[in-house]
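Could someone model pyridoxal-5'-phosphate with this protein?
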Amino acid sequence: MISFASGPAVLPPEVLSEVQEAVGAWDGSGQSVLELPFGGPDYATIQSEFEAEARALLSLPPTYKILLLQGGAFAQFRLVPLNLLRSTDCAAYVETGYWSARAIAEAREVCRVAVVAQADAAIPPIATWQLPRDTVYCHVTGNETADGVQMHRFPALGEVPLVADLTADLFTGPIDIQPFGVIYASAQKNLGAPGLTVVIVREDLLGRVRAEVPAPFDYTRQASTGSRVNTPPIFSVFVASRMLKWLGRQGGLTAAAARCERRSRMLYHVIDASQLYTCPVRAADRSRISVCFHLPDAAQDAAFLAEAQRRGLWHLAGHPTRGGIRACLYNAMPESSVAILADFMQEFDKSCPALT
Ligand SMILES: *Cc1c(COP(=O)(O)O)cnc(C)c1O
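Reply:
Sure, complex below.
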């Protein structure tokens, strides 16, 4: 079977076999990677390998700290404002779909939120974003995984740093880090196993945390202890380090971006050539990570999903709040698997009675 799930994502066979080996015995020592103490040299090696790979792939300057946290992107929705600003301060949010709406709802509990731009099935043009003068940061969502919308270019907003939920698109292509103050991403989309949340934070934004934030979620304390305030998600860091090494061997982020482009193009090509499938997203803002489309009605969506599953193409149902069909194509998704889905879509299209 092939899984197009929104997460956890598929992993490359090479990485899975490295993980299997390390669960059996770490480095020939007889100890499993699951048994390594977090204060010891073995975990120190795993973590520094992860960090070195991440820094190299992203060309990350030393002014950015990498924090290895838990709680997922969802926890960051509220932790970002709690770490960066006072309750009376203002944060700007760009609303582009399901996940940015969740981020906005969480931030509203703890600070002033200005929704500075909003669009359905598109990225609002940057020229229309109306940032209040006292904005501390501007929050964007790189890939709206439920909606199939992706921000392909990130604007530089002068003094106002971008804060970005890049859970579905970090490490899927090169980014210019300069406009960003904070980037956060859960690991289970492009980096392997769930349990790890990567937070990249610009040094000068540290030191503003509010007293009510628990220490493991305090960016400043985590930065000063090398993410060892308490037990880190060791296994997930290990898997992520092997994923990054694999990405490096595959040609790094430029090659990853080209693969994303080719994979998604196969599906959009079938969608656009067909009367049966509709992608509601504006062409320039279509996601290369989560391709969302639908058939003319819910009954046909269901028939498509049932037949797909019979052919071994799994987890293609759209986000529960959105319906339709969604194919998630994270870093480890082989192009050959996407070709099988594209062929199936064409075949299913031809087998349907002609639409009038
Ligand atoms: C999957 C996803 C999330 C949620 O991640 P969790 O680890 O479940 O908290 C948030 N934002 C985006 C863009 C996602 O794709």
